[in-house]
Amino acid sequence: MGPPSYAGSLQRSWYYGFRVICGLIFIFLIAPILVIIPLSFNAEPYFTFTEGMLTLDPEAFSLRWYEDIIANPQWLHSIKNSLIVGFFATLLATTLGTVAALGLSRPYMPYKQIIMPLLISPMIVPLIISAAAMYFFYSSIGLSQTLPGIILAHTALGTPFVVITVTATLVGFDYSLTRASASLGAPPARTFFKVTMPLILPGMISGGLFAFITSFDEVVVVLFLAGFEQRTIPRQMWAGIREQISPTILAVATLLVMASIVLLVTLELLRRRNERLRGIRA
Amino acid sequence: MKNTNVIVVGAAAVIIAVVGYFAIDKGRQASEAQKEIARLSADVERLMGEKEKIEKEKELALRPSSLTVVSWGGAYTKSQVEAYHKPWVKKTGIKINSEDYNGGLAEVKAQVESGTVVWDLVDVELSDAVRGCDDGLFEPIDLSILPPGDDGTPAKDDFLPGTLYECAVANIIWSTIYAYDKTKFPGDKPSTIADFFDSKKFKGKRGMRKGAKPNLEMALMADGVAAGDVYKLLSTPAGVDQAFKMLDKIKDDTVWWEAGAQPPQMLADGEVVMSTAYNGRIFNAQVVENKPFVIVWDGQVWDLDLWAIPKGAPNKKTALEFIAFSTDTTRNAAQASYISYGPVRKSAAPLVSTHAGTGIDMKPHMPTAPENFKNALQNDFAWWADHQDEMNERFAAWLAK
Amino acid sequence: MTSTTANDAIIRTAEGVPLKLKLLRTTRRNRIVAFCLVVPLLLFILVTFLVPIAVMLLRSVDNPIVAETLPQTVAALEHWSGQGVPDEAAFAALAEEFTLARENRTIGRAATRLNFELSGMRSLVTSTARTLSRGEQGPYKELLIEIDGRWGEQKTWATIKLIGQRYTTVQYLASFDLHYDAAGRIVAQPEVRQIYVQIFMRTLWVSLLVTVLCLLLGYPVAYLLSTLPSRISNMLMILVLLPFWTSLLVRTTAWIVLLQTHGVINDLLVWAGLIGDESRVQMIYNMTGTIVAMTHILLPFMVLPIYSVMKTISPSHMRAALSLGANPLVAFWRVYAPQTVPGIGAGSILVFIISIGYYITPALVGGRTGQLISNFIAFHMQKSLNWGLAAALGTVLLACVLLLYWLYSRVVGLDKLKLG
């Protein structure tokens, strides 16, 4: 790779200059995330590289902050809460969202222009307003400071992502497939599970992942709705950053970065599978 | 709202499904316990001895298995765990869920107004105790539950004047002071409240509580106002302007903290060279963590911390028992051997001796020690109850500019 | 098999139903089925989200406390001219209702509500109620003024009349730094209490700045990604997507680690001898921190839409322009850039909308000067407990966002909303 052979010296320097600029922007994007990983192995309770770390002295590195997480019942409890809330919110959001997306994608869907904005409104309304509103309402029906309350709130926040991704998968969906299935005598449920679902599965999974990450990363609603018992990972991090920032947070952050890498890879694989499937059909 | 009826019914199904899932587990436990009791009751006549045992179990089952006690976290909560919680658990077997908060009535109000009260007991400042009582957020407390002092003095005479209220019982006297890191001042050292506001003479960042209280009082005292005149002056617009003008002088040099655990941390990290703080937190850093911090007592603003029970608390009766237990002479004095907050019982004062960990004498570290008390101001709860809305709003506007 | 008859020339289905009718029925059935599929989610969103939002917005005008605690007094004040003090009827009603409210323990809430509007009302109300409950008798006008001179002041009564309204506009006025003076005119708040207009302006300004920064940084990156061979661009795309998928709190923490006074960048600068150890740069807990962290967090939202538009632009357009002798800059500006405008529009509006309601990052790294309107809504929700004002500020913010979304749907179309 290089500039085209016919390029003049000005173009040539611009060509390389442009790449340097882009390189710097990529560093801006990724460096902050990478910096915290080595720091989470710091043996000292500081947020900066010690001399020992820079000279790669093994003494300067330790797993003490990771041990801290395991030894701290609050962190463990918050991990458990995050997983419970994330799991149920994803399950509910994916189910409700997929069914709705099936309806929205049908050619005869009435009032689509009104219903669609309503369905994706949880994504549009600023979180602080959603959180405040849910706090008043959920408190008045006794759902604040309970896990089910947080699950319902996160489900509402997650469904727009499912609706959007599944609707996108259904664009260009070949309805003759379901008609064929029906005309061969399959009941609607069987048609859905055997014909429709395999085709829209990538959309469902990536929508579900979006819903999961929305719940897993959400802190504003949790700040308002959760009591001490319902603290999730982001809530625990929030308390840590606000009050007593310790490298334990960096250890948790590193684990979360790892988790997002896994997520990213999963999504990329799904995208490829989806493209392949569509490629075959086309 | 006819339409919402339909919606609510529809939603109920969804909600019940989710709630149901979580209820199943509890329900199963409950029904099993009931079966057990039923079976044993049938055998009661055959085995009198067993009957007694069952009744004992029943009595235990009626008592809560735990009590949720909310306090200010960090070294202060730790002292309460040592002085109150541990002996309480030993005596009653009732577990304590200790939670942290940063003061204020917001959480209590939210719980009470929504009817989902989960806190049994909360440690509040005086102005919040009075305001919360007026607003119906706290349960009235029958003061006759308080045990007499060790010397037999009835509780109402044993508690210092002004420490017992309709809805709250004081447990400690604490103070907002300022402290500095002596390694940062090799030459002249700050010694008066005026020095805190003099960033020319003593350079470096300051830490202050993010709120109007008690920064306004400290600002006026730093401006030379006598402690006795502070609230009189603050009741006039000119006095408030004067206080904010003093705060203006160090606005750009100040880092604002919210949790009591932050100031010692900020001093230790070198983020600030001096900070206002709760005196017990600095004491803890000095004595337990050997930090080179020095407290300046001049211009301290002292206040009470009180126990209050949120209205509709799930275990009100046990919470009352806990209040009586934790404010008796022994506990009240024991508290002071873990952190430098003063006891509120006259009978407890002479029992204050040495720090539990290091054995140093606690008396000179108390806010009320004569040496420390020369220029001290008591936080005026009545003034704050009236002015905190306006002052906090003005403070927020001032801060953001 | 369809059968037709010569007379009516209506096409019929095998069952003999006219085809037109059958088609209509099928369409209707399809419509119902489609609608039924959407109903569960629609109901769910209505109950768990839209109704709560509506109820909260109502709080900005709902003002029940004083109207319910002192109904007679409020009624008696209806006829008061607003000059001097009201007549004995109002005083008598007030005295009676204060005594009753003290018994019911509702007086504190009313006092709190009045105190938000006029400092000192709390103690005036509670102490007067305490004195009255000793069973004092009228005439009440003299009695109340004797208990506290403030009952003889016009502004005390004006406040009760104002806050006694069942529905109120005071919260919206407060949202724009206005209030009613004692004579009932709308005037600006005293300067020391003016704040929200400035904060709204600041929020808009920060959102605009972050949008411009994201555009400046995002456009070249999107261009590079769209022109590189897909093997390389897919690799580089990870550098955009990893931040996108990483927890917000992790990214905010990362910036704290980098920017704080004893953080990585300052240490680096000191180590390199560019600044002294005593003159470390304050880069966080102020506006700089907010802007840097928000730009970083929102950059992927700019890159992705622009990238997807650029992907569809054929490189032959640029080549054609160049081969026709256009200067590369002119070719880029006249031929390429106009085609990317939809992507720029989509990315910019998206980033702007997200910025305007941002809460977490300013709260954690904004310090004193980097706070946005969301932070003030949270302040009134959690600290000052002035929920009515929080709701009013929220409504204004929501109106801004909805306006922008309407713009977005006009420019981009909601169904074009894509993720990842």
Overview of this protein structure:
The complex is a heterotrimer of chains A (282), B (401) and C (420). Chain A has 282 residues and is mainly alpha-helical. Helix content of chain A is 77%, strand content 0%. The longest helix of chain A has 35 residues, at 247-281. Chain A is globular, with a radius of gyration of 24 Å. Chain B has 401 residues and is α/β, with parallel strands linked by helices. Chain B folds into two domains: 65-172 and 306-351, D-Maltodextrin-Binding Protein, domain 2 (3-Layer(aba) Sandwich), CATH 3.40.190.10; 174-302 and 370-400, D-Maltodextrin-Binding Protein, domain 2, CATH 3.40.190.10. Helix content of chain B is 46%, strand content 16%. In chain B, strand 1 (66-71), helix 3 and strand 2 (95-100) form a beta-alpha-beta unit. Chain C has 420 residues and is an all-alpha fold. In chain C, 44% of the residues are buried. The chains are: A mainly alpha (282), B alpha/beta (401), C mainly alpha (420). Chains in contact: A-B, A-C, B-C. Chains A and C meet through helix 1, helix 4, helix 5, helix 6 and helix 7 of A and helix 1, helix 10, helix 11, helix 12 and helix 14 of C.
* CATH class descriptor name of the largest domain in chain C: Mainly Alpha
% residues in beta strands of chain B: 15-25%
Residues in helix, % of chain C: 55-70%
How many domains of chain C? Answer: 3
Q: What is the oligomeric state here?
A: heterotrimer
Determine the CATH topology of the largest domain in chain C.
MetI-like fold
Report the β-strand fraction of chain C as a percent range: under 5%
Q: End-to-end span of chain B in angstroms?
A: 43 Å
CATH fourth-tier homologous superfamily of the largest domain in chain B = Periplasmic binding protein-like II
Total strands of chain C: 2
* Main interface by residue count: A-C, 89 and 87 residues
CATH hierarchy class name of the largest domain in chain B: Alpha Beta
Number of domains of chain B: 2
- Write the H/E string of chain B, N to C: HHEHEHEHHEHEHHHEHEHEHHEEH
